[in-house]
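Before a colleague's protein record goes any further, I have to sign it off. Thanks in advance; the entry in question is below:
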Amino acid sequence: MNAPLRIAVVIPCYKVGERALDVIAGIGPDCWRIYAVDDACPTKSGQLIAEGCTDPRVRVLYHPQNLGVGGAVMTGYRQALADGAQIVVKLDGDGQLDPALLPLFCAPLIEGQADYAKGNRFYDPDGLHGMPPVRLLGNAALSFFSKLSTGYWDLFDPTNGYTAIRAEVLAKLPLDKISQRYFFESDMLFRLNTLRAVVVDIPMVARYGDEVSNLRIGAVIGEFLGKHLRNFAKRVVYNYFLRDMSLASLELLAGIGLLGFGTGFGVYRWHESAEAGLATPAGTVMLAALPVMLGLQFLLAFFGYDIATVPRRPRSPRLIDDK
């Protein structure tokens, strides 16, 4: 007979008030332990939970200073690992994420089909009616850049806060290096790709009420873009030059070199001809255009290889023995 699974839930708490109590009340019996992390909340969410919740599974953790939602989640992750959790689920405390969906997120991890599961609010268009338009467009843009930086081209909705991870994989992540603010979900995906972990999307619908989100898409999209480009560069160096060298590595170098030369040469000769008031010779145009076209072909070949090598083999075994 299999022992009960140790599934832990981490809830970062910052200005969530009594909504966190409703979230905890909605977590079913499949959960083994619940960690509510008070991230130096000015409204004392942790104290409210400690005084108003009688669920014996709940442990309230306190930060002496605000670290951000990512920092709060990392604290919960560390405690869950120390206590021996097998799966760790992250839920927001504002009530937008339905705790009843927890078994759906854990199922592919229990079956050994994935190492990490995350929500996807974009799977069903009918479920997007409640999402504010600015957030809808911002998440769509961030999803594209996340594909580029993380290497998980088959995923969408990277800022979704509903996630589940196997403890074996979580223990291998450098938790102290993961972003402590709102970028941490995308940063987690980048780190998971360096481990070649399998990640799956779980279709879901978010619940939008009168809660006020602390994330402002317009304020962070520039910051997120810069971090995505940084992670893309790091991922390429890690996977295509430090850990391995393949035909795709050469295609990337050739593509960047040819595209750079063709663009630079073309701009220089165009400027030179414009200054002299002369038409640029056809041969010069072709000398600039041909490297650009070849460079684009090499880069498309590189991205084709990158898309085809999304991790497919989970690092984690099944948790349930059918015998």
The first strand starts at residue 7 and ends at 13. Residues 17 and 69 are 16 Å apart (CA to CA). The chain is about 50% helix and 10% strand. The chain has a mean pLDDT of 90.
